[in-house]
């Protein structure tokens, strides 16, 4: 079953259909921003940077009134609530959009763009498909990183395959590692979002990584 990569998975709702597409609900309120936002060092209320596959749907759910959703000029898809930049909607309103183009689309609440914003990174269908068991964990530090990062595999330290993909689904690294902690030089990589996939005999795990 496909796995959606989210930083605050407990705050997002997943609905699975027979078509294998997914619906992700973002609670839309003040401080619906990425936890990495430097203006909110204690962490954001809701994480709004997500990764989905082509054909998945995102639903914004208004927890308070006076908001809208608009894509910005750099987004690969144009979407948003009806009306102009400052036409807003009340508590309980929902807006849904199904993404069909690979790439990243940024979104904001136009009246509160510094307090409510995020991005949807769309990857090709099947990129996030994972069949796994005996799930454990691994860590990436630092994340985001500029020149290098360390992958700590924890208990997964024997014959692990590390694959890294960009948001277009292109594999940029494939390496077998045996050490618990392995350092990766990324100084020559393009800035942006990457997906790290690690595979062992019984486990497949994926996490999101940002190259600054």
From TrEMBL:
SUPFAM superfamilies: Cupredoxins. Keywords: Copper, Metal-binding, Signal. Residues 140-210 form the Secretion system C-terminal sorting domain. It comes from the Bacteria. InterPro entries: BlueCu_1 (IPR000923), Cupredoxin (IPR008972), Secre_tail (IPR026444). Residues 1-19 form the signal peptide. GO terms for molecular function: copper ion binding; electron transfer activity. This is T9SS type A sorting domain-containing protein. Residues 48-122 form the Blue (type 1) copper domain. Coiled coil: none annotated. The keyword Signal applies.
């Amino acid at each position: 079953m496909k796995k959606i990569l989210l930083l605050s998975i407990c705050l997002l709702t997943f609905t699975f259909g027979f078509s294998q597409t997914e619906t992700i609900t973002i609670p839309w309120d003040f401080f619906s921003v990425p936890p990495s936002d430097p203006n909110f060092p204690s962490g954001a209320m809701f994480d709004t940077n997500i990764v989905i596959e082509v054909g998945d749907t995102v639903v914004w759910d208004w927890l308070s009134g006076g908001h809208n959703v608009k894509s910005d000029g750099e987004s690969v898809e144009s979407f948003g609530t009806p009306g102009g930049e400052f036409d807003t909607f009340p508590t309980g309103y929902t807006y849904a959009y199904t993404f069909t183009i690979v790439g990243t689309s940024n979104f904001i609440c136009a009246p509160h763009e510094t307090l409510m914003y995020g991005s949807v990174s769309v990857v090709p269908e099947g990129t996030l498909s994972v069949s796994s068991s005996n799930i454990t964990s691994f860590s990436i530090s630092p994340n985001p990183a500029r020149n290098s990062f360390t992958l700590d595999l924890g208990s997964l330290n024997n014959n692990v395959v590390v694959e890294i993909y960009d948001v277009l689904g292109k594999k940029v690294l494939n390496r077998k590692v045996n050490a618990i902690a392995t350092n990766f030089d990324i100084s020559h990589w393009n800035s942006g979002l990457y997906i790290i996939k690690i595979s062992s005999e019984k486990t497949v795990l994926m996490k999101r990584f940002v190259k600054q």
